[in-house]
Amino acid sequence: MKLDYIDKINEYGDHIVRLYDFDKAEAIKFRNTLQHTIIINQQHLDLSAVDFIEARNCTLILRVSEEDEGIITSNKKQFYCNLTTKGFEQMILLLEPFCNKETKGYQWLYDIDSSTDFLFSPGGTW
C-alpha cells in the first residue's frame, strides 16, 4: 500500500491524498489498524509509521477531533486528517467493499467541503 499527495487535480485547484496499490489483504489490515488505533484506543495514527504503508511524498496523521475537518496541511508534505469518531466509523464502513473482495473501484473516504480529498483506490485512479 502506498501513500502520496497529488496537487491540483482539476481546474478548481483541488488536491488529493491517496492510499493506493493494495489488495484485499492490505485493505483488511488497514481497516483493522484504523479500528484498533482510532476507534478503540482513541489514539492518533501516523500512516507513514504503519509497516505495510509506503509513504512516498508526504505523511498523513489521522486524528480524532471535535469536528469533521478533513485533511489539512501547512506545507503540502505533512498532512493531518481531523475527523470525529463518527467520521472515522463512517470511513471504516466505506472500506468494507475492499475488504470483502478484490476490486478495481475506488472510494473517497469522507464527504467534506475541503480542498484536499482522501482517496482509497487499489489502482490509484478515480
Query: How big a fraction of the residues is strand?
Result: 25-35%
Task: Let me know the largest β-sheet.
Answer: 5 strands, mixed
CA gyration radius, whole angstroms: 13 Å
End-to-end CA span:
16 Å
> How helix-rich are the residues, as a percent range?
25-40%
Q: What are the low-pLDDT stretches, counting only 5+ consecutive residues below 50?
A: none
CATH class: Alpha Beta
Strand order of the largest sheet: 4-1-2-9-8
The number of domains is 1
The arrangement of helices and strands along the chain is: EEHEEEEEHEE
- The averaged pLDDT comes out at 97
What does this structure look like?
With 126 residues, the protein is of the alpha/beta class. The chain has helices spanning 24-40, 85-100, and strands at 2-6, 15-20, 45-46, 54-55, 59-64, 70-73, 78-83, 107-108, 116-121. β8 and β9 form a beta hairpin. The radius of gyration is 13 Å and the shape is globular. The model has no long low-confidence stretch (mean pLDDT 97).
Strand and helix map with partners:
Blueprint: E1 2-6, E2 15-20, H1 24-40, E3 45-46, E4 54-55, E5 59-64, E6 70-73, E7 78-83, H2 85-100, E8 107-108, E9 116-121
Parallel strand pairs: 1-4, 2-9, 5-7
Antiparallel strand pairs: 1-2, 3-5, 6-7, 8-9
